[in-house]
Every structure is written in structure tokens, then in C-alpha cells.
Write a structure and sequence with these properties.
With 305 residues, the protein is an alpha/beta fold. Helices cover 40% and strands 17% of the residues.
């Protein structure tokens, strides 16, 4: 089975490629850079086939996908800078909406199964009930709106698709909340972290395993995928990060979203109902505290902390 993976210079694409290698599946990586631009950690992704592809160029997308002739496409490439999206909405839309439409168009043309990664930000964040995959979308910022438009393109143009909504992502190949907190704690011992946004984190290493479990099946549809465990706030997550890293000397102060004052609105309620994973016979991701422990162990081994 040959699988084309977009966005391999990012956190998820990196781990998906390595998981394909572990399963003896043929992975072909792609990204906008001329050569693989992720971390050179010696993992298989750095030695696997790579093709440059600018997903915002429809002709290039058609040429790469038709030339590669994959059995499936796993579309990890995305604009994920939430606050910067407010400053550059059309640039964000070009990647998340138009880029995804380009990929979906070619996959639909050749009837290639497509997996697209969306986000909890497609919801407005009201209430406290966990969101179900078929709940009404109502994004409140540019990033969420463009990811919702990407979903619509996938549903419109392809017959065989997976849409996986993920949240609070962290992995080895890139920036994320865990790394940011730990890096800043080298020079600071006090942090203000929002306590009124609630959800659960997603470790890309665990997600990649489920992604590869899914891509070879015909159990298409929209799924919510995060690590298991209790719903928490970013404040709770920050405290858990410092405790796991042995930094109980760090003080974390809870603040409201309004007090924090980010450029983009975030959903208060990012609780995601993950029942559909089990209902379709897939193994859920481990609990988030276990994922965090394993992630920090790797950071320690790499002497990042």
C-alpha cells in the first residue's frame, strides 16, 4: 500500500511517516520545501521518499498526486498559527481551505481515499456538553472557519474520506504548548495560563498509530480524536507539564481568556466525544497524562529539558 502524506515537515506528518515505516507500508512524504524540512533525528522519515508539493497550486497538486498514484492520501499540511490567521486571513484560507480543496479535487477525480485533519475550533465553544461529530459547526475565528471550509471541500469532492478533528496537539517535530512552557521556564518561574478553556490534548505519536489503523479500512466518516482521560483546562495542563518535568518550583496562575487577551477567540468548550472510535472497532488513544509522561521522557533523553 502506497500512501502520500502531506505536511511531513510538521508534528503529525513526521510521526505518520515513521508509523508507516514501522508497518512496512510505503510512505511518500511531501511538503512545500524543496527537501524534507523537519527535525533530522535519524528516524525513518528522513530516509523515506519525498516530493515537493505546494498544496495551494492546483496544477502541482494534480501533477504530484497523479504521478505518485497513491492508494490513499493523508493530508497533514495546514496553517496552524491561530493568532496570525487573524492578521492574514486570506493567507490562512489559501492553505487550509483552498489547499485542501485542491487535494480533495484530485482525490475525488481518481477515487483515492483521503484523510483530512480538522479541529475543535470548528465549534463555537458554547456549553459544557462534549461535541459530537455531527454537531453543527459554528467557528468563531479565522482558523476555525478555514478548517471548516476544508471539511466542506472534502465532503463535497470525495467519496471515500476520513475527517479527524483533533485538539491541543503536541509532538516531537515542531512547536507546541508543552515545549513552549518548558522552554520559557528556563528563564521564568511564573506563568499566567487560561483556566476557562477546557478540552483534552493529543499526542501525535499516539494519533499516528490510529491514523494508520484507520487508513486501510473503509470505515469512513467524521471522527473526534484526542487522547483519553479527564477534560482539563490549559491551566491544569500547564501544572501537569511542570509537575511531570520535575518543576514544581514553577508557579502557574489561572486567568480568564479575556484577561489573557489573545488576538483570536478560542472556544471555551473543546470537550470532544470520542465514542465513534470504539464504535467502529478502533483502539482509542492512551490517556493524556500517560502521553505527557512519555513525551517528556523523550524530551529529557534528547536533553531538551
Amino acid at each position: 500500500m502506497k500512501i502520500l502524506v502531506t505536511g511531513v515537515g510538521g508534528q503529525l506528518g513526521h510521526d505518520v511517516m515513521n508509523e508507516l515505516y514501522k508497518r512496512n507500508l510505503e510512505g511518500v512524504g511531501s511538503d512545500i520545501a524543496g527537501n524534507y524540512s523537519g527535525i533530522d533525528d535519524g528516524s525513518p522519515v528522513t530516509r523515506m521518499p519525498y516530493i515537493k508539493m505546494d498544496i495551494t497550486d492546483p496544477a502541482e497538486v494534480n501533477s504530484v498526486i497523479s504521478g505518485c498514484a497513491p492508494d490513499a492520501v493523508i493530508h497533514c499540511a495546514a496553517w496552524t498559527a491561530v493568532d496570525k490567521a487573524e492578521e492574514a486571513p486570506e493567507a490562512c484560507r489559501k492553505v487550509n481551505a483552498e489547499g485542501t480543496r485542491n487535494i480533495a479535487s484530485v482525490c475525488g477525480k481518481y477515487d483515492i481515499p483521503l484523510m483530512y485533519f480538522s479541529t475543535d475550533y470548528v465549534f463555537d465553544g458554547n456549553g459544557t456538553r462534549p461535541w459530537h461529530p455531527d454537531d453543527l459547526k459554528n467557528p468563531i475565528d479565522v482558523y476555525g472557519a478555514t478548517k471548516a471550509e476544508g471539511e466542506e471541500a472534502v465532503e463535497e469532492l470525495t467519496r471515500r474520506y476520513f475527517i479527524l478533528r483533533i485538539a491541543w496537539v503536541f509532538g516531537l517535530n515542531g512547536k507546541n504548548f508543552v515545549r513552549t512552557m518548558l522552554n520559557l521556564s528556563k528563564t521564568r518561574d511564573t506563568f499566567r495560563v487560561v483556566s476557562d478553556q477546557v478540552g483534552t490534548p493529543t499526542y501525535t505519536l499516539d494519533l499516528a498509530r490510529l491514523v494508520v489503523d484507520m487508513i486501510g479500512t473503509d470505515k469512513y466518516g467524521v471522527y473526534h480524536v484526542t487522547n483519553e482521560g479527564d477534560y482539563i483546562s490549559w491551566f491544569d495542563f500547564a501544572k501537569a507539564i511542570f509537575h511531570e518535568a520535575g518543576r514544581d518550583d514553577v508557579t502557574v496562575i489561572p486567568v480568564t481568556s479575556e484577561e489573557y487577551g489573545a488576538a483570536a477567540k478560542r472556544p471555551y468548550n473543546s470537550r470532544m466525544n470520542r465514542d465513534k472510535i470504539r464504535e467502529n472497532g478502533f483502539e482509542p488513544l492512551p490517556e493524556w497524562d500517560d502521553a505527557l509522561r512519555r513525551y517528556i521522557e523523550v524530551l529529557k533523553e534528547r536533553k531538551e529539558i
